Amino acid sequence: MLEKCxxxxxxxxxxxxxxxxxxxxxxxxLVTYFRCSDKxxxxxxxxxxxxxxxxxxxxxxxxxFEVFEHLLQEAEEFNDGGVEFAxxxxxxxxxxxxxxxxxxxxxxxxxxxxxxxxxxxxRLSELGEVLEERFALEDQLIExxxxxxxxxxxxxxxEAANDPVAAIAE
Length: 170
Fold this sequence. Notes:
Helices cover 83% and strands 0% of the residues. It is mainly α. It has a single domain, classed as Four Helix Bundle (Hemerythrin (Met), subunit A) (Up-down Bundle). The radius of gyration is 19 Å and the shape is elongated.
């Protein structure tokens, strides 16, 4: 899963500062996720789980309220079918958001109960599957809504650079 994260970052890195930052946040989320299973660390289980919960909420919020809005706006501007594609993916992404928030609601407490500690390995496993699905859906969204227009944007910028009068008129 971490390798897929790096691959996506290499693929889309530099395309947009917002997406770049978000992909770095994704990587930090994954590192925090894996630390929850690391028993050799000095940090308490509660602090590792709380850190994960914080990353889950921040990552999901940034996705919905910043990145997805940016991508949908871009799709609307190009009006090439991307909005319809996004509308098909967004309910699936939203379903993963519910899982992330449910995990947060269940485990973002100062002191884990014995029942929570016992359930944590299975819940982390489920969460890992949800994250993998979410990242794949997000990658599809980025690829279609952002990368599809990369060449058009570059061509427009090149034409504007070559024709200063046209650039001023825009």
